[in-house]
């Protein structure tokens, strides 16, 4: 093909775009939008070394910068630094003060930490607007060697990807295609192979050379497709498809091998030229949101070239974008510009060789005359290389982080290789990285469409405390006065709430965790005020892996077990069908409308409602006395009698099918195949499970059968006898239909203490249903089913072998108690729990026959009454009844004795608790203010949790043995709804970040967790709570006073530097791996600084690393070595 050429009209714009023609109005608008966007911040931490030992300390200096010139940021005065475990749980979080973009601190490492790859994450609140993908996120190894595996193995075959230069291939246009191969560990792996077209002809070959990256050239022919034949070590040869070429389009290519210039090339084919001839195009080059290069041309040929001087751009990544005449992005290419603009540093010692404990003097100087007049801030680390193993190519530095890795998507392997190696091969490898790694910072389509995400978070210049004033019922209190007092720091502030009851204290400078006292009053000086202090809105911890990629966030707090397991179920179904099934041709059947699928949204099936081997609806069971009789005809050939029975999410045991009344059933889901049972593991029997949803549990059916009255049971018995008789004598009788009652709306029972939830019971009797009664027994006898009362008024379960039932009054459980001890006039509702399914959640905490859960009118918080039926009152009622009987017996009447009961303390608000039993339904609840100031959480809990022991590693065990999963050795830890690995300990959770701990020890509370937590669990809710704006601290009583645990700035410690003026005088062995650390080195007016320290007792090669930045944003780094003999 004959190539045409075009004379390009090149327009260079050093500041703004005012000289562009009118047809570039869309670009002018885009540039203005870019200029109006606030600056983004970056964070870099200089760590003293790459890996650490147990009990070691991570020393770091933080730099925050903005803009393409990396000037120190004055936006944020607060930085958050986190240490994250290999299990993606928070170990420590520090709040660091930043002054003009600089701050420093240290993270002490506990001896109890487990060996593994940990992460250090750092961010400002301003950075939250862009998400976790923009945070500083660095891996370090604790207790071992340098990190080698970053991503967990999730695939067995290599992941091979192809990246056409500019984003696409076009028929007839020669293109570079980059290739990247990743092993199962997420790291690059070199491969080789050939490229074949769809006819089998080999058109190119390739071989990767560095970290699985390489390239090849290809000119796709019209109508042909291409694939790669891949030969990888340890694998059989296999094929991978290449992206299909386009019939119409453009290819944007560049050559970055020249030291001073970048050569751009735009190419297309004749088909595109015919369509777009004479139309304008534009190429824009930008860095950090600022445009440094523009060019305009008209399409009169198929190939175009332009030369761009690198001196126009700052160091770092430049994004070139090709736009069409209408402003649509057509192609994109990024390149790395290295103008060697970093500071030139000189580092030297007063001697070449030293002895142990000898004094060392290091002279630091800026040798570049153009920048040595600017003030610069440096940090210096000196380590013994013989004690700290490291890989210089994998090292994170101030140069490769701020110029390279912070600008790219995904994990960058060996980033320092591209900076320490200046060979032609290294520059070619860096260009392949640009071809295979996505640019993260700016997307032109979003700019052109003016679709920027709203800025939710403002820069945080200082610490602040905010909250809301409200009435006990939650209504905001406007214009109330609020006083803040921090006596340790001598801080006293006051403010006034706004119209919505909101208040804010800014400019707080508190250290560590300080107890702040908040006092609030209404505008009329009233003290009946609830203070809601906002919880800090810390970002969620994203999983490891490609740490720079923002993951998909799933709100697990609203996700049912069905949603979590459905994908696994589908895959298992597919696997089984492929294993055993036969693929048949598709057959279309017309004229039959499938009946609607039953609504099983309330099912507790972990696969999801309806996803079972068999589904039987309650209405299809027929009439039977025992449920097993009904299922005998429905499940022929299936051994259902040996299956586990799960009723409304509660596993009541194996074979206990007849403990459930057939009349109470809404649906039964049968799981007996292997893949169906697998999700339940050992928590169900080998035969499978019957997942039963009761009518109370489903709440879907409008019309149901009459409740289980004596008449109904008699009729069922009659119907069964008739059916047997008809089968015996060959007679078929007419079907007798009993029309069910329309189910009334479930009553609302505020503050019910029923662990199943208010109204979820075998039977609910409201006060209005009892009519006029002399006592509670009299009121219940005519309404309650399956329950009678003994001579003393104690309830007895008729279907539970006459076992007694407990009485639970407003959450207080009383055993062997007369129902008449409760004043019938004070009763709001009675919930009857008598079946096995209903009793299971309570375990041994109630009598064997079940319980009557009574909610009093006072207990609802809705209706007022004269007296609260608490324990003391119940005891007095019992006493009064006995006295009355005694007086009647002996003819004496005694005076009334009034016993005032102690008011039950208000249960703390646990609105964000992930406890599956319900917030606060636990054997014990510990709030944040009950935890002492301690490093390890297990130390905080030791002695505070009855019946539980703690070992030195932070594992917890109940004193009483439990049967269950033998692989689970300790109580499980659940943090914000996430159950940590069985190997995780309490010490993996930062004690200062905890809002509440719910301790689950008894079988009643553990039943819902099944085999996952057989020994118990700690349900931990962190201070970050739930969704933004919903999480807060509050006091137990709305009295206008609250002690608030405010997390202040971490109080940094000074690095210990011994002075060995008399070496023989100190006998203690000094084997510190970090010999010297100084985060606060400021050069003088001549750009110089002098450092002094002493060597320790370790011989070998000592490595000096200097990193820093000046007030103009110029970056500097130097490495120096000396020996200690």
TrEMBL record:
Residues 1-21 form the signal peptide. PROSITE patterns: PROKAR_LIPOPROTEIN (PS51257). Keywords: Signal. Residues 773-845, 936-1016 form the TonB-dependent receptor plug domain. InterPro entries: Plug_dom, Plug_dom_sf. This is TonB-dependent receptor plug domain-containing protein.
């Amino acid at each position: 093909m004959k190539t045409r050429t075009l004379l390009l009209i090149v327009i260079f714009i050093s500041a703004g775009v005012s000289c562009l023609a009118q047809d570039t109005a869309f670009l002018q608008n885009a540039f203005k939008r870019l200029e109006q966007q606030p600056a983004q911040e970056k964070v870099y931490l200089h760590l003293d070394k790459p890996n650490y030992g147990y009990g070691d300390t991570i020393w770091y200096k933080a730099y925050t910068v903005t803009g393409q010139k990396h000037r120190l940021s004055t936006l944020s005065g607060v930085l958050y630094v986190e240490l994250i475990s290999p299990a993606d749980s928070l170990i420590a979080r520090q709040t660091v003060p930043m002054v003009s973009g600089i701050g420093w601190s240290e993270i002490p490492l506990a001896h109890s930490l487990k060996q593994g790859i940990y992460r250090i994450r750092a961010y400002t609140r301003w950075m939250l607007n862009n998400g976790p993908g923009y945070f500083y996120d660095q891996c370090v190894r604790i207790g071992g060697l340098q990190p080698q595996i970053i991503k967990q193995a999730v695939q067995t075959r290599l992941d091979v990807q192809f990246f056409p230069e500019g984003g696409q291939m076009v028929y007839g246009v020669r293109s570079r295609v980059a290739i990247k191969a990743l092993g199962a560990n997420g790291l690059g792996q070199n491969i080789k192979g050939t490229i074949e077209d769809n006819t089998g002809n080999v058109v190119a070959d390739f071989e990767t050379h560095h970290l699985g990256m390489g390239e090849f050239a290809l000119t796709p022919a019209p109508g042909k497709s291409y694939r790669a034949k891949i030969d990888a070590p340890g694998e059989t040869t296999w094929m991978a498809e290449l992206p299909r070429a386009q019939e119409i389009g453009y290819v944007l290519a560049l050559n970055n091998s020249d030291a001073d210039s970048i050569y751009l090339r735009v190419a297309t084919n004749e088909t595109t030229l015919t369509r777009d001839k004479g139309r304008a195009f534009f190429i824009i080059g930008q860095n950090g949101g600022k445009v440094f290069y523009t060019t305009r041309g008209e399409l009169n040929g198929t190939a175009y070239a332009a030369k761009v001087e690198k001196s126009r751009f700052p160091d770092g990544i430049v994004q070139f974008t090709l736009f069409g005449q209408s402003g649509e992005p057509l192609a994109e290419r990024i390149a790395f510009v290295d103008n060697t603009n970093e500071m030139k540093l000189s580092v030297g010692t007063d001697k070449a060789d030293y002895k142990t404990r000898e004094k060392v003097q290091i002279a630091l100087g800026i040798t570049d005359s153009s920048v040595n007049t600017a003030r610069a801030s440096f940090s210096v680390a000196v380590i013994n290389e013989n004690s700290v193993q490291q890989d210089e190519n994998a090292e994170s530095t101030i140069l490769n982080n701020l110029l390279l890795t912070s600008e790219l998507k995904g994990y960058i392997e060996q980033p320092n290789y591209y900076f320490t190696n200046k060979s032609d091969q290294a520059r070619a490898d860096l260009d392949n990285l640009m071809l295979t790694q996505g640019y993260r910072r700016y997307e032109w389509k979003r700019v052109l469409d003016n679709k920027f995400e709203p800025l939710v978070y403002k820069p945080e210049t200082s610490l602040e405390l905010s909250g809301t004033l409200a009435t006990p019922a939650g209504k905001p209190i406007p214009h109330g006065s609020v006083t803040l007092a921090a006596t340790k720091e001598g801080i006293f502030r006051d403010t006034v709430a706004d119209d919505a009851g909101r208040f804010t204290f800014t400019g707080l400078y508190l250290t560590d965790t300080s107890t702040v006292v908040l006092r609030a009053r209404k505008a009329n000086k009233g003290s009946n005020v609830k203070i809601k202090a906002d919880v800090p809105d810390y970002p969620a911890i994203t999983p490891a892996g490609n740490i720079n990629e923002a993951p998909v966030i799933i709100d697990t707090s609203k996700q049912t077990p069905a949603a979590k397991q459905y994908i696994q179920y589908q895959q298992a179904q597919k696997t089984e069908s492929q294993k055993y099934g036969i693929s048949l041709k598709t057959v279309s059947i017309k004229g039959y409308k499938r009946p609607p699928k039953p609504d099983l949204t309330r099912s507790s099936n972990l696969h999801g409602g309806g996803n079972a081997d068999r589904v039987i609806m309650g209405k299809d069971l027929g009439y039977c006395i025992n449920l097993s009789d009904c299922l005998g005809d429905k499940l022929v050939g299936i051994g259902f009698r040996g299956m586990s029975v799960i009723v409304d999410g509660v596993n009541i045991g194996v074979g206990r099918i007849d403990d459930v009344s057939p009349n109470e059933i809404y649906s039964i889901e049968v799981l007996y195949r292997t893949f169906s049972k697998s999700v339940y593991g050992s928590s169900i029997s080998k035969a499978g499970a019957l997942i039963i949803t009761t009518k109370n549990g489903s709440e879907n059916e409008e019309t149901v059968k009459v409740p289980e009255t004596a008449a109904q049971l008699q009729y069922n018995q009659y119907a069964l006898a008739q059916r047997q008789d008809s089968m015996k004598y060959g007679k078929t009788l007419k079907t007798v239909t009993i029309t069910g009652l329309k189910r009334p709306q479930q009553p609302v029972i505020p503050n019910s203490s029923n662990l199943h939830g208010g109204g979820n019971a075998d039977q609910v009797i409201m006060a209005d249903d009892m009519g006029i009664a002399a006592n509670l027994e009299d009121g219940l006898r005519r309404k309650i089913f399956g329950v009678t009362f003994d001579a003393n008024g104690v309830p007895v379960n008729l279907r539970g072998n006459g076992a007694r039932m407990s009485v639970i009054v407003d959450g207080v459980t009383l055993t062997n108690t007369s129902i008449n001890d409760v004043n019938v006039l004070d009763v709001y509702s009675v919930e009857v729990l008598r079946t096995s399914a209903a009793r299971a959640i309570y375990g041994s905490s109630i009598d064997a026959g079940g319980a009557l859960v009574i909610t009093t009118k006072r207990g609802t918080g809705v209706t007022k009454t004269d007296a609260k039926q608490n324990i003391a009152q119940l005891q007095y009622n019992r006493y009064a009844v006995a006295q009355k009987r005694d007086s009647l017996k002996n003819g004496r009447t005694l005076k009334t004795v009034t016993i005032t009961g102690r008011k039950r303390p208000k249960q703390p608000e646990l609105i964000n608790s992930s406890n599956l039993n319900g917030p606060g339904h636990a054997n014990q609840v510990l709030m944040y203010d009950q935890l002492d100031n301690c490093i390890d959480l297990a130390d905080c809990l030791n002695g505070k949790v009855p019946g539980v022991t703690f070992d030195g590693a932070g594992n917890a065990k109940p004193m009483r043995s439990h049967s269950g999963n033998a692989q689970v050795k300790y109580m499980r830890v659940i943090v914000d709804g996430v159950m940590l690995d069985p190997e995780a300990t309490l010490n993996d959770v930062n004690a200062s970040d905890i809002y509440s701990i719910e301790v689950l020890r008894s079988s009643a509370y553990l039943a819902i967790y099944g085999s996952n937590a057989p020994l118990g669990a700690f349900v931990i809710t962190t201070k970050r709570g739930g969704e933004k704006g919903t999480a807060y601290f509050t006091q137990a009583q709305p009295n206008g006073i609250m002690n608030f645990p405010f997390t202040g700035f971490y109080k940094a410690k000074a690095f210990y530097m011994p002075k060995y003026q008399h070496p023989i005088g100190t006998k203690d062995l000094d084997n510190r791996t970090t010999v010297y650390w100084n985060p606060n080195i400021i050069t003088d007016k001549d750009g110089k600084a002098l450092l002094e320290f002493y060597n320790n007792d370790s011989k070998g090669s000592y490595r000096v690393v200097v990193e820093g930045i000046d007030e103009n944003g110029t970056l500097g780094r130097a490495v120096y070595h000396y020996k200690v003999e």
